[in-house]
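#struct-pred

JT: dropping the chains for the assembly here, can someone run the whole complex?
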Amino acid sequence: MEKSLSNSLKFILTLALIVVIGFLLFLANKRASEYVILILNLMAINMIFAVSLTLINGITGIFSLGHAGFIAIGAYVSTLLTLPVAQKEMTFLIKPLIYPFNQIQMPFLPATLIAGLVAAGFGYVVAAPSLRLIGDYLAIATLGLGETIRIIANNAWSITNGALGLKAIPPYTNIYWSWGWAFVTVLVIASLVKSSYGRALKAIREDPIAAKAMGINVFSHQVVSFVLGSFFAGVGGALWAHLITTIDPKSFAFSKTFEILIMAVLGGLGSISGAIIGASIYTVGLEFLRVLESPFKIWFINFPGIPGMRMVVLSIMLIVLMLFWQRGIMGRDELTWDLIYKLFTKSARRRGVVDE
Amino acid sequence: MNEVLRIDSVTKRFGGLVAVDRFDGYVKQGELLGLIGPNGAGKTTLFNVITGMYAPDEGRIFFFGKDISGFKPHEITRFGIARTFQNIRLFSDMSVLENVMVSQHLKLRNWLWFFKCIAKTPDSIRMERHMREEALKLLKRVGLENFANEKASSLPYGLQRKLEIARALSTNPRMLLLDEPAAGMNPQETFELMGFIKQIREDFKLTIMIIEHDMKVIMGICERIYVMDYGKLIAEGNPEQIQSNPLVIKAYLGEEVLL
Amino acid sequence: MSLAGFFQHLVNALSLGGIYALIAIGYTMVYGILRLINFAHGDVFTYGIYFAFYAVVLFLMPWWVAFVFSIFATAFLGAFIERIAYRPLRNAPRISALITAIGVSFFLENFAIVAFGGRAKSFNPQTGIYPTSFLNMINIGGVRIPVLTFITIGIVIAALVLLIWIVYKTKIGMAMRAISKDIPTTKLMGVNADRVVSFTFMLGSGLAAIGGILWAMKYPQVYPYTGMIPGLKAFIAAVVGGIGSIQGAMVGGFILGISEIMIVAFVPSLAGYRDAFAYAILLFVLLVKPTGILGVEVSEKV
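RK: done, full complex below.
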């Protein structure tokens, strides 16, 4: 029997962790540079993207490649709701914005919620036909779906302002919104996964036929997982739009889904804590790689900066990751206090500090 | 006669191939019924039709008098029919305990539980604890409680087969369909399995139907046997009758028959 | 629309469909033997164009030499990718191979940005890339159609005939077909699976190069993302026709090319959505018959 920490101890540790993170964020918000704050916001938003994708792809086993489409829906819906009416009139030059959007302006929170719900609604509508397909076909269909949403966004001038996109989006996203929503996302999804529903979803991932034989309505559970994941993708999209303040259909091409996939796979597809870790490393790592794009020195060798080198290195890293380390950092396991305790005592035991 | 299952002239086709051909049969309460036949005779297909994986093209299936033809697999499980699979279909990445807990998800009857579970309300926590206890109780009854936290795929083959059966039992079935439970087992394991099957019939008050190629098992524990060939029912009887039936011997000609 | 106009669109559609068919075959062959969606195939198509371009502009080869060079260079590129990125993952879960394929695609695109520059390069005959005579117009019943269109159709047909011959009349073609059914058994029969797989990639990539050159002559520009949309459409064509089936890829390619041109011809206001037609066809086919028009049903044994 392994020693594990008591539940109350774990609860206190988690609470303490949240307090510490909250405090650090508070400090960062007050003292850190704009650049650092931008990165922190991006990190939180990427966490939301990665965790929501992990729910669908990693936990339930639905190989969906259309995540960018739901992010786009969230971004556009929320923006159309928060842009001041006057701004909308100025921006929609080719064709005026349709009713009722051209008359509405609402605060950030309801706009974000509605954005999430609309994305979830779309998820519900496309789930039914798509989930009849398996494996590769599902991947292709969802890829096509995401792309279709982008093309529609590019052409529906009276709704999305087409290829011109939307600009001067009110920069509502701050540390509290982004990390707050990230916290909610993780809380809800983790709580779901640690329940009977989580077991049902994982069973569906492992073997849908056996899951059916165990009395699980596979289809309805897949739909729920897909819809929930799409909801948070939409929320993340809303946060993202209000961070970068301009959006256009190009931002939601397949490369966006691909980036989120990298985050999830890096952290371990099938692990929520893995998704969080993967998103963090990716966000920070991408910034570090930016270094490659302007001239830099290693020892006495001058390297010219090559724009675009970042993505080259990134793609090589992904290939290497898949060739040598498929399971990613956490694999399918979660980072729990028990795990940390085990690792800590294992190394302590090895160093002869703690008795067996 | 207390009929648990009635199979009424069921036919199942795949394109031009008739996998099950006007099969007529029944299973009595508490019976241990064997289903044998050469490879490709349609035995597993029949199981699949009974459990709702396929809908019958013709004919009907009655369970305790209720017409269950065409219902979906998860619904049929809820009615009380459980099955194991020819190829082990355990949830390999999940623990042994989790494997037998999955079926308890049935107990969450409506989608209100979805929100309760996320919010971790007191009754959802109580339900989770209850599920865990029930699963552990089951593992104890079948002798697998020491492996509760092991990953299902790490178990030795014989125990994996046992877990398959335990998982089916966790759905609280009234009838159990076992598809080649002795496949790949050595004589010792097979002997233990035979005892195990008889035991669970007693303990869980089950009616059991078994597909098997290992004749030791069939002749050893089955009270009645159906023989299928090319989708059709070609013989029915107790072990002595079947063993001396010329049609059966002809169907198996060329196949190694373990007696 | 006049009959002549219709004919013009039709010929155009056939040439476009033919190009899609050439690319689609590459996708379908790889899926048939490895069950892998080779996301990088569209980028191999792009590199085929780049190879031809640089062969003329940098190495000063005559255009037809450059084209042949490009076909071989691209074929080797395809085989190289398979060797490095896909072969090690042959027994890995499918999602890993898929992610790797996406990674390779990303790499090729971004490497092209770094190595060739992100700006589009012009593929026009003035630079000697192909004879200007290709752009001569032929007058048929009052409609002017460039010679190139007919050359394209001709080359496509020649390539398809050559492919069919290879697949059905040669030993290695037979090995390819056998492997697509069952790799372990085929290996037991003494077939060197690795070599056959490499050959399949080379064949598909070579066809993609031909398609790429034909494409670049038609739409005279090359930039790192040239192959992305045609690649995606060709992939959809393969799925629509029945992924794993070479005839299916051909059928799918023509269906996609024809629908793309014809729909815009009849309903010009939908021009902006022209790329979405392919997805619409895809979704329709996936809902009605996911295995595609000529596809084979594969059911899971319960």
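JT: nice. The first strand of chain C starts at residue 121 and ends at 122. Chain C has one domain: 3-288.
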